[in-house]
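Weekly sync notes, structure subgroup
Attendees: PM, AL, DS (notes)

Item 1: joint prediction request from the bench team. They want all four components modeled as one assembly rather than separately. Inputs as received:
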Amino acid sequence: MTDTSSMRERILSSAEKRVRAVGFHAVSFRDLANDVGVKSSSVHYHFPKKEDLGEQLVKRYSERFHARLDQIDVEEVGPIGALEAFIALYAEALVVGESVCLCAILGAEANSLPGRINAGIQAFFQANTEWLTEIHRRIPSSTMLMTPIEIVSALEGAMIVSTVMKSREAFDATAQRIMANHKEH
Amino acid sequence: MTDTSSMRERILSSAEKRVRAVGFHAVSFRDLANDVGVKSSSVHYHFPKKEDLGEQLVKRYSERFHARLDQIDVEEVGPIGALEAFIALYAEALVVGESVCLCAILGAEANSLPGRINAGIQAFFQANTEWLTEIHRRIPSSTMLMTPIEIVSALEGAMIVSTVMKSREAFDATAQRIMANHKEH
DNA sequence: GTCTATAATTTGATAGAC
DNA sequence: GTCTATCAAATTATAGAC
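Output from the run, pasted for the record:
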């Protein structure tokens, strides 16, 4: 099953795993080559420049993430259920000491990344806030709710703090707070 | 004034500025050497290994930050005023496209940093949450307040999202939300 | 598509003169 | 303390054979 996926996909999977653990600058073509059992020049065949790799990484991650959001939409769980599912997606992305959201770690490195990668990260956050805005619109009595960008910020920050503290406490507390803010009205 | 500071201090200042802009891995000894007008071997004289540099960087940043927190304590502005001053410290650390909190960017890179640096970042967050816990304790009617670790997470995350979006919107909204949550009771 | 080979550059780090 | 000189290793990237 994993063996049937193309080399390009296997490289992207390896890259995503590594980047989400240690960041873009800390991953090399040789790391990826070793992971998938080829030489680094073969990795360059699929992704000529590292910027290309980063760009495709963000693209693939975003598409996968947004496909999950679309799925939530069609499930018609209601706005509160949708928010819960959204948070669950983020929760899934965090494995303390192993991975955070790709765009959390790339976002922190943003000022040292090539422009095309940055644009992808920005689009990811933009799409997330827009999706949340639509959910937000469907929640009655919108007073006291956190805005979409606050929700995204809080979740991304909580992932980073959780990683540093080696404990999910920060993330879990943030997730609960977001839900509490939107349920008691 | 700037000229009278020691070479060691000037190197640390240069390093802090750069790391807070682009991250630890994206800064080299030669960058710093050029900034302060010496050769890279001279930078190694002051900081033998890059890990030493990172460690001292976090130490200096933390001490400076916590000195500011001590200052807030003695000013006796009350718990709400103290919280406001705390957030102002974070606000000061964010210059979109130029710098975020040192521990936000190092926190994101945490899994690829030497252990001693990680310990410093963890201590920074720990001290911040403990300071906030004491403030928290002094706020009457503690229902519905965000916990200290949630506040720190939200502010750090907002810095990163603001950097990516090239707008302070995320940070400002987060700051206002924290204050609103603690004022209306 | 993958390989060997290698270029070109950068990087962290050290030895030893001054 | 700073310099020159240098090293070893790593990194991005390319040329050309198979």
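Discussion: Residues 28-30, 40-41, 44, 48-50 of chain A lie near DNA strand D (CB under 10 Å from a C1').
Action: AL to compare against the crosslinking data before next sync.
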